[in-house]
Amino acid sequence: MTALSHESCTFIFEGGNNQEFLISKILKFKKDFENFSYHTAYFGDLNQVLAGTSPDRFETLNPIKINNWQDLIGVIKTPFLAFLPGLMDYSSFVPENVVLDDRSINPWVPFLDLPSTEGARTILKEVGWIGPTSLLKTDVGSEKSLSLRAIQSVIEKSNLNIRYRSAEAGVLSSNYSISNITSPKILTSSSVLAVVPHFNCNDYLEQCLQSLVSQTRLLDGIVVVDDGSDVLPVETVKKFKEVTLLKSPLNVGPYRLIQQVINESAYDAYLFQDADDWSSCDRLEILLCEAERTGAELIGTQELMFFGDSISSNRYPLDVHGALAKGPSYALLHPSSLVSRDLIQRIGGYSTGLKFSGDLEFLNRAVHAGRVQNVNSFSYFRRMRKDSLTLSPVTGLASLARTELHHRIRTKAYENLKKISGGLLPNIVPLEVGEPVQLEWITGPTIHNG
What is the pTM of this model? Predict the structure, then answer.
């Protein structure tokens, strides 16, 4: 691994027709990284693109002409590069927080300052990154764009062996501090099982599992629980000797599967991930360290959401308790979370009778029984697809079924807030409980059952 320095990294700014915007970004960069090398890369005729540019501005731009991104190979003399797309504004970051190695990329996401009890969503056309210059020698270098979306596209098409690292979210936390907890429920040494509910996601499952087996702090187990898919993902799972595949006889929804795995195992904590998403390689390490420091028993991360032509930067409140005191909301992304077994069992588990929105229902009960919070880093990456639970016309966020269920969940949440304000205990019983399912072992190691 290498530290970010002027000897290790060159900055590349994607050129364009808006010279004022570009120069303003470069001036900000030079103030932060005065010793670093940089170039502005242009396609086409430089004389035409930069016609009328004054000598001093021409020097500030430090332009180079390229026909494709692979032309940068002969220009960049450092093993790593930082790339800023033309449509993305410059944002500073802490160099010491960037870890460089030859098979990882660090997303470069614009910062947003927020109160600790608030979240926000920002739609970005392009996102930058910091990673190995050798990426230019792969199919990435021949793409029309060099943005993070382009890299992800190549990963999906060619199974490129590149992992993501976490990136700072830039959420202000000056008004939100937690003293060290003397007896946290989750420790850095805790045993952790990753649970991946799966339903017809085989096209995406390999990247999901690759991100889990590549964690800087190894998991103690990884289990994929299939929910009655048309095709069981046996061959994909068999590529990873650490991963167990279990099968449900019926399609019952992810929360009944999750709870069944928890009931049949004995790990200290559970890390969740959807089968069509992926994690940064340091996600578990970050979550465990922060859980031990703060005493959090349910802890999530910030996320980048990948659409077809854009990326959504989704920031969740650091102070989940403060956020939910205002009313029920998705203040934590469940598939990005780590939760203690003790908290799950204390509140009666998940609402196993629900096929969707069980995460919102669980969160609004868990907040009354243990510490809940989010870390200040983008460590989870979500793929949005039209046939997912959240976008399906039958179960999606705008569907009648989900609207009616959300009304029930929110009504109960507001009733609990009213009870607490009146000095009464909240109702933390699951909203709906379904019958247990008999999971069938298909392949992989046996999960720890105590």
Answer: 0.94
